Predict the structure of Pyrophosphatase.
Amino acid sequence: MHLEELTDRVEAVSATYARKYAIERDASWLLLKLHEEVGELTQAFLTKTGQARDRGRTPEQVESDFRDELADVFCQTLLLARHHGVDLEQVVADKWLVWQTPA
């Protein structure tokens, strides 16, 4: 699946969520939601690395929480980029991949 197709699918899920909870997904909400998800990822990371209490979660649940929060951050980033008309594939190529050394 290409990033644009994935973003289309994430957008559809997010739009359904917004309708269900009467949320206006404007630029501020998208950034704040990303910030919320980064906080949840931080908590999951701290738990995974033994720097926070596990709250009775099994190691498997802790690992699952970490993976889920990574997905949430990634998807919210896709949504924020789309909202602002940012082609993430191009930006990554311009910003990161220019430093790639040939194999």
User: Anything to note?
Assistant: The mean pLDDT is 97. Residues 3-99 form a domain with the Helix Hairpins fold (CATH 1.10.287.1080). The chain has four helices and no strands. The first helix runs from residue 3 to 21.
